[in-house]
Design brief:
The chain is an all-alpha fold. The chain has helices spanning 28-38, 43-63, 68-72, 80-90, 102-121, 125-142, 150-161, 172-178, 189-218, 221-224, 228-234, 245-248, 251-274, 276-297, 300-312, 316-337, 342-361. The longest helix has 30 residues, at 189-218.
Length: 363
């Protein structure tokens, strides 16, 4: 079993005469620690995580906007005095518990929308990531009964993401950095160490989630006999009319997907850390898994949050490789069908910008 290079193997020792060669140690484990402490990994993936998770948070704010007073307001279905006592008794924190004023509620709710929007755009992400966590945590605890479970994983991941660089790509921060001189782009070694530690913590959290979920399912009778998916789709709570029927009316699909779900969740951790190929495989399967949940069970935000975490764990080389593949594929389509050149040029420009930004951020 070989270790996954993107999480364990250090980068090659810099060539003699290069600026980094004077400080790079020679031992394997010394180089491993040196590499993780000097080069931030998965910068594109963490930026994609910010965008996908941020859009899912914005979706929650906006789809509940018309009913915000009923769901979250001081005189809503969860009255402020009951909510405030619950927060005080559990020693939790929510900015909505600080005042019962309707004006204060409006300010907090709209500030949450503003913070989430700026976070998606990548403006001052180092500061806005903890603010996004605070506003999301506060809204989640204002009325805990309406969420679909994705809020739990996002809440934990946002704590880790506070220590990571989420604005290296596709952000206003990245544009601002392009205008700075190269000397100003050098960050302290501790920043890379914290970023990589946060990335590893997110990976471990995802592995724990899948491992515990899979082992819990094994203990359930319906999962062992292959009927769990049928009851989940027929319960009425997690269905998407017109789509769910395509699965639960087919006994073979129900049994197959029930067993595949358990096997995938139990095997995820082992395949994730086995090697690069198996890691890509299980991350692709995870994304497909949650696209299926989104389509057939209607859990849109839950699936979006989970896929945002999956996308964070893909390396920069994998994103750039996917961009080159898409550019080549689109080129073949364009030559065969005469598609406009502008879309291919846009892909090429995006790939070049990501490569340049990764080089600028590498100490």
């Amino acid at each position: 079993m070989s270790a996954d290079p993107s999480f364990s193997a250090p980068s090659p020792t810099p060539a003699e005469g290069s600026p980094a060669s004077h400080s790079a140690p020679s031992g394997f484990y010394d180089r491993l620690l040196w590499d993780y402490g000097t080069r931030e990994r998965n910068l594109i993936g963490m930026s994609v995580f910010r965008i996908v998770a941020g859009l899912a948070i914005l979706l929650q704010f906006l789809i509940n906007y018309a009913q915000r007073h009923y769901l979250f307001g001081p005189e809503g279905v969860y009255p402020w005095d009951v909510f405030e006592k619950g927060v005080a008794g559990s020693q939790l924190f929510s900015i909505y518990s600080l005042s019962s004023s309707p004006i204060y509620f409006e300010v907090c709710f709209h500030l949450g929308i503003l913070v989430a929007t700026l976070w998606v755009l990548g403006w001052r992400t180092r500061w806005l990531t903890p603010l996004t966590f605070i506003f999301w945590w506060s809204l989640e605890h204002r009325f805990p009964g309406i969420w679909d479970g994705g809020d739990n994983i996002l809440r934990i991941v946002l704590i880790f993401a506070t220590f990571a660089d989420l604005g290296a790509h596709f952000s206003l921060d990245a544009r601002r950095r392009e205008k700075l001189p190269p000397a100003a782009l050098t960050e302290p070694r501790a920043a890379a160490l914290f970023h990589n530690a946060a990335l590893l913590a997110i990976a471990i959290q995802l592995c724990l989630l899948y491992g515990i979920a899979g082992l819990s399912k094994v203990q359930g009778e319906t999962w062992r006999d292959g009927t769990a998916l049928y009851y989940a789709l027929r319960g009425g709570q997690y269905t998407w009319p017109g789509f769910s029927e395509l699965v639960y009316q087919n006994v073979y699909l129900v049994v197959l997907f029930s067993y595949i779900t358990v096997a995938f969740q139990i095997a995820f951790t082992f395949f994730f850390f086995m090697n690069r190929i198996t890691r890509r495989l299980v991350l692709f399967m995870s994304i497909m898994f949650h696209l299926g949940i989104m389509s057939f069970m209607g859990l849109v935000t839950f699936s979006s949050f989970m896929m945002s975490v999956d996308l964070a764990l893909l390396s920069d080389d994998e994103y750039l490789g996917a961009a080159r593949w898409w550019k080549a594929t689109w080129g073949r389509i364009r030559r065969r069908w005469g598609a406009p050149e502008r879309a291919a040029s846009s892909i090429e420009q995006l790939s070049g910008t990501a490569t340049k930004s990764s080089a600028d951020l590498t100490p």
